[in-house]
Amino acid sequence: MGESASLGLTGLLAHPRWRASVVVLAGSKLERPVDHVVAHSGVGTIPAVPANTLLALTSRPEPLDWRLDALLRRLADQAATALLLPMPMSLIQATVRLADRLGIVILGTADDVLALVVEARTLLAGPSVDAAALVCRVARAMGPQLLDPEMLVKRLHVLIDLPVAVLDGDGVRVAGDVEVTARPHPTCARQRLPVANGELLLAPAPDAAGRRAEYWIAARVSRNAAWRAPAVSDALDLAALSLQRWVFARRLVVERDARHRAALLGELLQLTTEPQVETRRRAADLGWRLDGWHIGVRIGVPPDVEVLGRTADVAAALRGEDLEAVVVEYGDGWSGWVTLDAEPTADQVRQLSQAIRHAHARLRQRIDAHVGVGRPEAGPPGIARTVAEADDAARLAVGRPETGRFLQVDSLGMAQLLLGWGRTETFIPAAHTMLTPLRNQPGDLIRTLGTYLDSESSLNETAAVLGVHRNTVASRVDRIKNLLGVDLQDRDERLALHLACRAVLMD
């Protein structure tokens, strides 16, 4: 009996049923094709078979039976591919060497040989049969229930018997055990990306508008099992629909909670006195601390960023710096605060600001964000004051690439207020004249000086903003002092240069 399609022996051995129950006893030419699968009762007779046949014996021969060697020779004469024995028996070395020399692969199984033959013939009859069966199994298993990424990965792994993962819209793994080394293309369509010894199949779970993939479901298929890729891709599409249902259901809950948080934040931002008992209760239900000392944070993003869908990224960036902060979706971004038990010292404020800056750097790897930080304020009414300051700082930070689009109100102080006066028709030409010695010098000295003064003379922070080594900054600052002939320890000279740098850089 023959079949119409050709299937490599490696592909057959990669099939879940065969991979789980069949072992290679002898032979190394696993790349040979299998065009026919024939069942035979034993070694008593030697059947005539077509080329590229896998012969499956239904009864076990003895290892020392000379007829087994005769069967191997006959199969080699007929250009057969492999012989399947009904148990993973130990072969004598003479038989192993003979199989290697003849190019026949000997397989062994403790499973039902006839069932394995049926599986193989089904595959040879047409991959579409296997694909349809797989898709039906996945459809039944997904059902109408909502499966979160962890549950979906576990269920799908059992169904397709391949490594599976769920990725977020940027291709970062959120569940599963597939190592992702390449990010999906922006297009919201199924993809196949090359990976070591195989490929990564990807199916998108689009957002509500269908413009971008909010999540991806990925499965890794080895090169030997490449013939399974079409069936697996169809199965991933079904799983992606299931994941999309979970995303939309979760989105309704998230949007409801976001409206509740935004409403409460709006009330707090209007506070000028002690909040009402009901306001305190609602804040406590959310885990918000109203008492203590608060430092406001505002994270702004371009209008095209979906704020609600990116809150998890913001929270992860803050957690990465061990910052316990309230984060609320508010307008084009997020407003929030960090609460301390007692009034922070200048060093504590500086350390906290540095941690927020580092969290901002983490976030900018995923989102084009700008950040403002307010001054410490006490009690519930202090939340409104420090968040408002953070919002003002964030608005200024948008146009301040020299600070890394990060500004803290303390670092602005009176100089920021004076800047409004400094940007006049008489001051700007004077500022250009003041900084003329720094022009056309290597190292972008004007930007270096402005960043250095913004960073309160911190070489490390200046180096981080400019993306250069600390020693490079130190060398540039020394050159600036020499070229301008100034003492940067003098407060008046520092303020004048600070204003001049800002006026020139923003002109």
Automatic annotation (TrEMBL):
<protein>
    <submittedName>
        <fullName>Helix-turn-helix domain-containing protein</fullName>
    </submittedName>
</protein>
<dbReference type="Pfam" id="PF13556">
    <property type="entry name" value="HTH_30"/>
</dbReference>
<dbReference type="InterPro" id="IPR051448">
    <property type="entry name" value="CdaR-like_regulators"/>
</dbReference>
<dbReference type="InterPro" id="IPR025736">
    <property type="entry name" value="PucR_C-HTH_dom"/>
</dbReference>
<feature type="domain" description="PucR C-terminal helix-turn-helix">
    <location>
        <begin position="445"/>
        <end position="503"/>
    </location>
</feature>
<dbReference type="InterPro" id="IPR042070">
    <property type="entry name" value="PucR_C-HTH_sf"/>
</dbReference>
<dbReference type="Pfam" id="PF17853">
    <property type="entry name" value="GGDEF_2"/>
</dbReference>
<dbReference type="InterPro" id="IPR041522">
    <property type="entry name" value="CdaR_GGDEF"/>
</dbReference>
<feature type="domain" description="CdaR GGDEF-like">
    <location>
        <begin position="276"/>
        <end position="396"/>
    </location>
</feature>
<comment type="similarity">
    <text>Belongs to the CdaR family.</text>
</comment>
